[in-house]
Amino acid sequence: MIIMIGIGAAMGAVLFAVLVRVAPPGVSALVQLGRLDAIHASGSHRASLQAATPVPGWNVQSWLGGALTRLLTRRGIGYPSLRQDLALTGKTFEETMGRKVVAFVAGFLLTLSSMVALVFAGAVSLPAGSPAVLAVAGGALFFFLPDIDARTAAARRRTEFRRALGAYLDLVALEMAGSAAPAEALPKAARVGSGWPLALLRDTLFRATRSGRDQWEALTELGIRIGVSELRDLGQLVHLVAHDGARVRQTLTARAATMRRRELAEAEGLAGERDQSMRIAQILIGFGFIVFLGYPAVVNVMNL
Fold first, then answer.
1. Is 199 helix (H, G, I), strand (E, B) or coil?
2. 3-state DSSP call for residue 179?
3. 168: exposed, middle or buried (C-beta count within 10 Å: 0-12, 13-18, 19+)?
4. How far, in Å, CA of 234 to CA of 72, rounded?
5. Are 163 and 228 within 8 A, CB to CB?
6. Count helices and strands in the chain by DSSP H and E runs
7. Tens of pLDDT along 57-79?
8. Mean pLDDT of the chain
9. What gap in Å lies between CA 148 and CA 154, rounded to an integer?
10. Three-state secondary structure call for residue 183
């Protein structure tokens, strides 16, 4: 009994350490924006699809992440979608690869120790080699936990960015309606808000201006880098009609209206899903109440 308690405590400690390592506490938006600037200081999309700069300092996780990243790069595996998600969460690709390796090892050892403990305790009877196969499966499951965490956080931040982008496009159109040129209207509208999406837009436009690059092209690369298709398509579309201010203003207004309609449709769909969930919960509560009232009568009838 004491041995089983000790094994359970050890497994709980390992699981807690893995969860803290795989899903660390959140970082503020300003810190994440600073990391994003440091990673993409060159301002090129090609650099974002290649191996990023190694994490400062040496530890086992960073070393494993760097080794795995180099191996994947040599084999032509780029993980572009994961890199786009990481660009929004402020984490480097090597750091995430290191977390994936650590999660795999932890999941393998945790599953293997659990299976061995159950076999020795006589709770289950498994064929020879089954614990190793189950351990590999458990490690593979843990291996994808960092991906799920990154995609969930990136999806939430993309939603925030799209909301701010719709308002930003309206502000740019208003600035251009006041006889402002696009090169002046873009950074001026970005200085209105203080959230991280507008700060990211300001930083992108500032770097484009300092380097002499086209601002719409810089916004297109930003949309590709962070996986926001609306910004990518908008930059490509406006770049074609950049010399006609009226058409640019019409394009911005139409795209902002489209984004608002899409956001409204998504909000209505989410409200419908939650309303359906509440109905299901009410049905379950009512069914449980009926069972609670009818259980004594059923027991009395069966005892007759």
1. helix
2. coil
3. buried
4. 32
5. no
6. 13, 0
7. 446 777 777 888 888 888 888 78
8. 78
9. 10
10. helix
> pLDDT tens digit string along 18-39?
666 655 656 565 566 666 656 5
DSSP secondary structure, 108-135, as one string: HHHHHHHHHHHHHHTS----TTHHHHHH
- Compute CA distances 44 → 33, 205, 219, 224, whole Å: 17, 13, 11, 11
Q: For residues 200 and 138, what is the distance between their CA atoms, to the nearest angstrom? A: 39
- Checking if the pLDDT of 84 tops 80, the result is yes
* Whether the Cβ atoms of residue 173 and residue 188 lie closer than 8 Å to each other: no
Q: Are 106 and 18 in contact (CB under 8 A)?
A: yes
* Structural contact between residues 150 and 213, judged by C-beta atoms closer than 8 angstroms: no
Residues 6+ apart with CB under 8 A from 48: 39, 40, 83, 87, 225
Ramachandran angles phi, psi of 125, nearest 5°? -125, 115
Burial letters for 104-139: b for 16+ Cβ neighbours within 10 Å, e otherwise? Answer: bebbbbbbbbbbebbeeeeeeeeeeeebeebbeebb
Longest dimension (CA), the chain: 92
d(CA 98, CA 177): 50
Token pair recorded at residue 292: 């609670």
Q: Which amino acid is at 185?
A: A
Whole-model pTM over 0.70 = no
The two tokens of residue 75 are 């084999």
pLDDT digits (tens, 9 = 90+) for 214-227: 888 888 888 888 88
Cβ pair 216, 242 in contact under 8 A: yes
Condensed to tens digits (0 to 9), the pLDDT of residues 127-142 reads: 777 778 888 888 888 8
The region of weakest confidence among 111-125, 178-192, 248-262 is: 111-125
